[in-house]
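To: structure desk
From: M.T.
Subject: fold request, one chain
Message: Could you run this one when you get a chance? Sequence is below, nothing fancy, just the single chain.
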Amino acid sequence: MLKLSLIIPAYNEEQRIGKTLQNYLFHLQKYLPKEFEIIVVLNGCHDRSLEIVESFAKKHKEVRYVNIPRAIGKGGAVLHGFTMAKGKIIGFLDADAAFDMMAVQVMIERLLNGEVDCLIASKWKGIRFSSVNEPFLRKILSRGWNTLVKLLLHIPVQDTQAGAKFLRRDVFQSIGHDFICRGFDFDIELLLRVKQKGFTIKEEYVPNKHIPGSTFNLKYVPRMFKDLIKLWWVRKSL
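Reply: Done. Structure tokens follow.
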């Protein structure tokens, strides 16, 4: 069995998917030579993302991809990648390469050593509001969302939405795959399911940089809030 399966959900990422793959490959080839795979889930792309990823897959056997013609949401793309994964540890990183890969490697090592069941990166843990590297409005939305999640679901983390989360494959297999949330709120349900099954979740600060061009849009907020309420209602049955 491979040690790591890294999922990259990608929606119209032709401007950065090439550099991101180079970055992830460079670090993982040094850290886990021949023991990892990268699965790019092309989620309704209508730019050159597929062409670029195909080229990488031909040159690097560690890279696999699936092209989904009609977008199924970020969460749907991650779930699809998880079901394809062959690694002992599975996880996802966003296509913007915002997180420091050296710190991410430490996270993966802790999971491989059996120290924790699920480990997530955080931009907020132990960091002052003014020091977080994000636009002001996005920080306000992040803190409001986090307050709601803590209030309704009692998930004790500071940053539920950071695009860097890893868990053991057997943990994922035990939490069920019939997810309610398939968009940007997928992260909440993933953490809730892990928590409800009694697995341990640890959050660690990982240095990051704000990368312009996020696919998140304010239009998704009402749906996220609706799904949050739905998760609160069904939380005991998960």
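Reply (cont.): The domain at 2-237 is CATH 3.90.550.10 (Spore Coat Polysaccharide Biosynthesis Protein SpsA; Chain A). Let me know if you need anything else for the meeting.
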